[in-house]
User: What shape does this take?
Amino acid sequence: MKPLRPRNPTRRLVLEPLEDRRLLSNYLILDLTPDRVAREGAKPSSFASAFSLTDGNGYAPRFLDMNGDGYVDSTDVSQAAKQITNRTRQLFTGQNITVARTDLWADSDQGTQWLSYGQRSRADHVDVLYVGGYDSEVENGATGAWGIAFQAPVGYNNEYYAYAFTSEIVSWMIQYEPDARPRDFVNEVAKTVAHEAGHLLGLGHVRRNPAGDTNIMNYNSDAATANFPDKWYSAIDLLDRNYNSYWGTQNPAKELRDSLGGQPEDSMDNAVYSAYHGTVHFRVTPEELHGDHDHGGGAVSELTSVHVARAQGSGPFAFVPAAPRSEGVRSMVDAIHDAAIARHLQQDSRLPKPSNGHRVPDPTPHAVRASEAGPAGTAAELESLVGVLV
Assistant: This one.
């Protein structure tokens, strides 16, 4: 068979020059020494501080002994940070997002600088998860939540920060799961991080949190097998553009693909927190916490009612608001807290000592490299910064 003769043999294709720009990149930064955020008024303690927690007998929990040497020390902190980061990456497998951690041993305001970069950049989206501390350190006396985030309205992203409270998780596991393994701790923290990041990208809670469901946004999903399912749910707690909560349909994996494919950023006006209480922390549904609501007849939404109850000192999250601290008091408290953590990590662990008298490695925080100081906004500087994240 003879080849077809081209209709216009003299015409040639001309390639137009591409614009000088990079494709959209998405970053989820795990800041392990949370920054002080002005609007929060408080600074959570570090990820490392959770490793100073002990049981009623003064022993460190075995689920924090990451290397199984009978001690809980700075080596375990480093290993846990690495494993949690890797597990979080695994949970976002197949999605267009880079997961990295920073500021394990020192606070160089990486989260703040990364977020500032993302909000200025046309090409990159950045979300920051501050990992460490207790719920009460951020929510003015409230307790119990393993994580909190501002949920984005349908069709939008929040380029913002969220929290995963590792001291809250460790304290609960010491009390209720003392025989848990290191991988259980890693899975719980990673699921909490992914859950809160999901809220920033528009994912909502599953109605009634059915048992057996693997959706990360389901309170009752098993942290060891949780994922972002590529299937449709008929009743997800979503927010419209005016932050009204309603039950709607959502496919978690598809929503992530759409969000990470360049959905517009929300203005964050009237944003409301969405709190996560862990895989097995309370095992309750929103209906059990706040009373069933159908988003009609003037009913208060789940996301808003949590904070209304807290502000009024009533309901399941009742508390007496604490007086705000002055900057001088905050600095003093932070200094005392950091010194206490350093002293603890320099001591032998609280786990039973092996017969050979193992010595705890020197936990002195490493010096922060100059290149970890945060992005200044240019592509070259960002690429350099990404190169030193882990």
Summary: Residues 2-7, 9-21, 279-377 have pLDDT under 50 and may be disordered.
